[in-house]
Amino acid sequence: MKQHIIPSLLVSGLVFSLTACSDFLEQEPANYISDEAVITNESSAKSALNGVYHRLGASAYYGGRYFDAGVNLASDNVTWTGSLNFYYDFDTHQYSAENQLLSYAWYGIYATVNQANQVIEKTQTLSAISDSERKRIIAEATVLRSLAFFDLARTWGNVPLVKSATHSPTQFDGVKQTSAKTVYQEVINDISSVLDDLSQNNDRVHVSRSVAEALLARVSLYLEDWTKAEEYATKVIDNASYSLGSISDLLNGKLSQESVFELAFSSSFTNDQSAYWRSPNDGGRHEWGPSKEVVLLLADPSIGGDRSIFYTDQSSAQVPDYYVGTLYHRPSADDNVILFRLAEAYLIRAEARAKKQGADLQGAIADLNTIRQRAHVPALDASLSQSDVIQAIEDENRVEFAIEPHRWFDLVRTGRAVSVLGISEHQQLFPIPYNDIEADRDLQQNPNY
Fold first, then answer.
1. Mean pLDDT in runs of 10 for the chain (449 residues)?
2. CA 192 – CA 185 distance, rounded (Å)
3. Torsion from C-alpha of 348, 354, 355, 357, nearest 10 degrees
């Protein structure tokens, strides 16, 4: 088998560091983080909002070593190449509720939720702030919280949907888990309610209206609402702020013209992805790398095309099949993490067009060929059947996002993970961390864990 975050301006009382594993595992249930009522004016509200962005880019979440690593390793695009055994469990689908990666990831995402809840709740009651600025801050926090809820639901299934700031460890006693589908719908509703309050300024490092529309397109795909998925993807595609540049732009620059939303890292806020992807020859750990299967696809000029630069081959006679991903390559560890880019909008629209009632196969093929043309691979034949087009979309997603955390989720949401990866049905959801099950009597473990 196989496989502009702003530097934190968090004020005291909203900061929690993920330190030693033993310290972490002694924490209260993951939705409990204390707060000292520090959001008292517009300036502190903005600082706390910066903290939500910071949480999103933390190592436990999209900053590298935990959530992002687990879902990548569970796919057939990325494989374990290092020394830390808790990563190997995801590569081989032997993950259990005791795996420390899950504990950090679960906590990290709920920490993001709680920070957003603090911002939403307390900004609503501020007096010395303009109405437009109040709405913008709340809207950005709502979209960031929605992304966190979406990631929780698509990773663990039924999860607690906590929309209130946490003030005590017993505050949510009796709160049951919400079904994943209901979480998705709540995400749609929440984002839709603040859409008009978001900025039209697409600076690529803050939540704008376009970022919200990109997330709505993605969530609509999970709900199989093909009409809405096509509608929102089209809004992103038609936005003049974005265009498909070269593949090398994604690797060598930041804030490329294709980027819709990315997390910005710096020398003071570094990205763990870089060290864990890079080889020891470049000062990295190389805990994971592109799988041989995806490398063969990327290396094929008729499939990968220009996307072959997503990896380098550092194999030797002593260490064969040693491939290194290149998306995070800077020794300075300040590589940005792109969460939404224009190519995804094209592929979402292609899938929606291919699967909607009265399928628009020609439109779907046109979207696919737009992505293929950029990669300099041959265009698809316009006479493909519906099933062929749907398979072509899956295949295109695999190579376009070869080392971005899409493949696992694509296989799970389309019902293909069991047959493609050879896993059991229950392994399509990760187990809820053991310590949280023990600490919260209302949490129900996913089946067969």
1. 28 32 36 57 96 97 95 98 96 97 97 97 94 98 98 98 84 86 98 98 97 98 98 98 96 95 95 94 96 98 98 96 96 96 99 98 98 98 98 98 98 98 98 94 95
2. 11
3. 120
How many Å is the Cα radius of gyration of the chain?
Answer: 21
- What is the rounded CA–CA span in Å between residue 4 and residue 164? 27
Exposed/middle/buried for residue 266 (C-beta within 10 Å: 0-12, 13-18, 19+)? middle
- Amino acid identity of residue 153, one-letter, is A
List phi, psi (to 5°) of 289: -155, 175
- What is the structure's pLDDT at 143? 98
Residue pair 92/1 in contact (Cβ under 8 Å)? The answer is yes
Q: Do 416 and 394 form a contact (C-beta atoms < 8 A)? A: yes
| Number of C-beta neighbours around residue 359 at 10 A | 16
User: Are 70 and 105 spatial neighbours (Cβ–Cβ below 8 Å)?
Assistant: yes
CA-to-CA distance for 319 and 321, rounded, in angstroms?
7
**Phi, psi (deg, nearest 5) at residue 273:** -55, -40
Nearest by Cα to 110 from 74, 36, 163: 163
Phi/psi-derived region of residue 39, left when phi > 0, alpha when psi is between -120 and 50, beta in every other case: beta
CB 52 within 8 A of CB 62: no
Cβ-Cβ contacts under 8 Å for 92 (sequence gap 6 or more): 1
Per-residue H/E/C for 157-215 = CCEECCCCCCCCCCCCCCCCEECHHHHHHHHHHHHHHHHHHCCCCCCCCCCCHHHHHHH
Query: Residue 424: which region, alpha, beta or left (left: phi > 0; alpha: psi -120 to 50)?
Result: beta
Tokens of 157: 């299934």
Query: Of 64, 115, 81, 156, whose CA–CA distance to 320 is shortest?
Result: 81
Residue from 249, 268, 223, 399 nearest 338 by CA: 249
What tokens were used for 81?
């190449």
pLDDT at residue number 37: 54
Q: Which two tokens stand for residue 41?
A: 């004016």
